[in-house]
Amino acid sequence: ILNVEQSPQSLHVQEGDSTNFTCSFPSSNFYALHWYRWETAKSPEALFVMTLNGDEKKKGRISATLNTKEGYSYLYIKGSQPEDSATYLCARGGGADGLTFGKGTHLIIQP
Amino acid sequence: DTAVSQTPKYLVTQMGNDKSIKCEQNLGHDTMYWYKQDSKKFLKIMFSYNNKELIINETVPNRFSPKSPDKAHLNLHINSLELGDSAVYFCASSQRAGESQYFGPGTRLLVL
Questions:
Q1: Do B97 and A96 touch (CB under 8 A)?
Q2: Which chain B residues contact residue A94 at CB under 8 A?
Q3: Alpha carbon of B32 to those of A50, A62, A107, B21, B43: distances in Å?
């Protein structure tokens, strides 16, 4: 994998259901993996930064895991709510470099 | 209080003009960045500055030049604007390189 790739590109989820999506990234020279939440007409907002293989982070109903050896991270949302509708970006951090972003997963929660 | 601010929010200009976008952060962060959101909504790093030193410069035309008068400001100057420069430009900052970044509201540039 040369770039940061996210799947699926978009996702429709019923309110109350749980969901998850994937970020794949180059595992060589790994520094950090970031997740951002980006609502329409707003700026990206940081959710998590993970650096160690096996890291798990949690913020309310949202959690993320990291596997640096195989180069993937999962973001989980438990009991989806309409306010969770947003684009979720993952990005690979290169130390002193800026972030290399994926194209995002566009999540729509249907009432 | 706005953590990362950008001005202007919207910029409409003619091809060939020179323009600047200003960015300020009041978080006391050491590192600032400029990103371009392309037509496919993809965020791409343009520059990062750490303590007024340019750290990276991706394959960005030299018509684009970052200018940092102090640690709290990183302005983006663009010479000889082209149609393809039309995009949304985001400024961001982080305490240290590699840490979570705080984004500004974006500047929507339209070159006619």
A1: yes
A2: 98
A3: 20, 27, 29, 14, 15
Across the interface, do A103 and B44 touch by the CB < 8 Å criterion?
no
Contacts of B103 in chain A (CB under 8 A): 43-45
Q: Do B47 and A43 touch (CB under 8 A)?
A: no
Q: Looking at residue B16, what is its pLDDT?
A: 97
B54-109 pLDDT tens trace: 877 768 899 999 999 988 999 999 999 999 999 999 999 999 878 899 999 999 99
Q: Which of A10-14, B37-41, B60-64 is most confident?
A: A10-14
CA dist B27 and B13 (Å) reads 31
